[in-house]
Amino acid sequence: MRKLITSRKRNRSCFICKKAIEKGEKYSKKSFSVGNPSQPDKIVNHPTLGMAVEVQGYRYNKSMCEKCTVNETAFKTVKIVNSNKEIKK
Ligand SMILES: [Zn+2]
User: Fold this and answer.
1) Do 21 and 27 touch, CB atoms closer than 8 A?
2) Is the full-model pTM beyond 0.70?
3) What residues does 57 pair with on adjacent strands?
4) Number of domains the chain is built from
5) If you measure from the C-alpha of residue 43 to the centroid of ligand 1, how many angstroms do you get, rounded to a whole number?
6) Centre of ligand 1 from the C-alpha of residue 29, in Å
């Protein structure tokens, strides 16, 4: 299961159920990547901006409440069980 962290500040909300995560409540972080973050950024000549940095990708974190973290884990377990069944066929 994903590691649960205790929230130390307010203004956090779950990206799945949109529930507010209050201070002191448990939540976890899910990281997403867009594009190819492992690739170095490129310096390019932009027609209007001149010199510009072309970012190849970036990572960001989203907060997930305790309930959704547990649900996500349960969902993954179901998937693993199903794929094992298929192998046995
Ligand atoms: Zn949630």
Assistant:
1) yes
2) no
3) 35
4) 1
5) 39
6) 11
